[in-house]
Write a structure and sequence with these properties.
single chain
Length: 226
């Protein structure tokens, strides 16, 4: 356990440094430095997930989480490039695939429970209502955006459902639930500043960073406590 804590501590410190550098370059809109710093964060949480295999033989859950972190890294890369329609679609597609892997992994351990469906539907409808109330402009991609919101909401709810799964140790379940919730919040923040809307960009960009990277890091860290 001591070795696990040391590894996680080192990776968390690196991530904190990376987040500071990333926010600095992102707010200053320095393209190449911004892209490199974001990819560095993706590399850190991906290596954290892979590092869990040093302490336990990987099972199906671990492999699925690894695939999800890699896909998140791919999404990070595309979204860090100068915005273009195809790059935006590629980034969002990679993240949607990552969320699908997360959902499959969470259900593999916690199983499928019909009780989660009302929560998914309720949260999804509240998100759509909120988007309508603030007149969020989806740039002509309303159906695609709604589908993505549904996927990430499903991921967050299934992550939280692990708190009631006997097969998942409580520490790992809490880390995963917090990670899934932060991931949902980070995507909501990204939509607020990333889609054509008059919002305080600098504030929302910073909040997106401090929710997204810790979100994936928490899910990856949970692998060390299974």
């Amino acid at each position: 356990m001591t070795a696990k804590i040391i590894v996680l501590t080192v990776m968390c410190v690196l991530l904190c440094v990376q987040m500071g550098v990333y926010i600095h370059y992102k707010l200053q809109k320095k393209g190449r430095a911004y892209t490199l710093s974001k990819c560095a964060g993706s590399l850190i949480f991906t290596l954290t997930a892979f590092g869990s295999m040093l302490f336990a033989k990987p099972d199906g859950y671990t492999v699925l989480i690894l695939c999800a972190t890699v896909l998140s890294s791919v999404g990070d890369y595309f979204l860090s490039l100068p915005h273009g329609h195809h790059r935006l679609k590629a980034g969002a597609g990679a993240f949607a695939a990552a969320h699908c892997f997360f959902v499959i992994a969470f259900m593999l351990v916690g199983g499928f429970h019909w009780q989660t469906i009302p929560f998914i539907v309720l949260i999804f409808l509240l998100e759509l209502l909120g988007a309508r109330l603030i007149k969020l402009n989806f740039r002509g991609a309303g159906k695609s955006a709604a589908s993505y919101i549904l996927v990430v909401t499903t991921m967050a709810v299934t992550a939280c459902s692990l708190l009631f799964a006997d097969a998942m140790p409580k520490t790992a379940a809490w880390l995963t639930a917090m990670g899934g919730t932060l991931f949902l919040l980070s995507d909501i923040l990204w939509m607020l500043y990333g889609l054509d809307k008059d919002v305080p960009n600098k504030v929302f960009k910073a909040l997106n960073v401090v929710t997204y990277f810790p979100a994936v890091m928490l899910i990856a860290s949970a692998l060390y406590f299974r």
